[in-house]
Amino acid sequence: MTLPWPILAQSGTALPITRLIDISEQQTTSLLFPYPIVSVDRGSQDILAQKPKGIENVLQIKAAQEQFMQSNLTVVTTDGKLYNFQICYNAEPGSLAYDFSSNEKPGSATLEEHEKADRINALASAAYHDRSRIIIKESDYDITFSITGMFVVDDYFFYRITIANESNISYDIDQLRFFVKDQKRSKRTASQEVDITPLAYWQLPEKIPARGVKTFIAVLPKFTIPDKKNLYLQLTEKSGGRHLQIKVRNSKADEVQPLPTFSNN
Predict the structure, then answer these.
(1) Which of these, 70, 83, 226, 239, is most buried using a 10 Å CB contact count?
(2) DSSP code, position 199
(3) Are 61 and 48 in contact (CB under 8 A)?
(4) 12, 46, 67, 73, 96 from 86: Cα distances, Å
(5) What is the CA 207 to chain-centroid distance, rounded?
(6) Residue 248 — very low, low, confident or very high, per pLDDT cuts 50/70/90?
(7) What share of the chain is helix, strand, coil (3-state, %, to 5)?
(8) How would you classify the pairing of strands 229-237 and 136-140?
């Protein structure tokens, strides 16, 4: 399952953040540095790291297990430069190689990305824990697919989604799709579907265990639904046929709640 850029469930750190990196247990990610590596510190044993034999400025990393909790990795090179990475699990990392050997100042292009991800992460956590509840759901195959919260902050929507599996067979998520289409269409008119691509997910599971329940947040760009159209959430099962779809009527989709935020002032 291919997902957009990840949200990190971890607060900021005083160390300079050079890059947000996804890793998996099935693929190796390589980091290339301008100088030899003198120190590597793993924030968790779930991160495996090694230098290839005979190559002092390359570090290879991968996950020791699936869905580990986010952590960090710190690397120091012989020029005294410290690189601190936020490490997150992703079954299909967007990149398997990172080159820090250029003469450009490391982190200059990614600090803004980190700050943005860190803020959205905090907002997603707030949406996850917010006590207000709505129920828009669809049930079939002993699976209940629900929206339990819809929130807005600035240019972002935060949809809180719960999947409950009351069957004796685990449910592997293949795809979660958001799209807008006509409420009704005549036989002579083709139905137009407009996809809404999530910007990120927070605590998205790959599998719902038998008799298990999982809740996560989908972060969407702010949008409105035209008259006579509805929003649909379509959940499909990997290597299976237990597919479910939620219809969110135009009027209901407009009832998103402002998410309480806190000022640092």
Answers:
(1) 83
(2) S
(3) yes
(4) 10, 13, 15, 7, 15
(5) 15
(6) very high
(7) 10, 45, 50
(8) unpaired
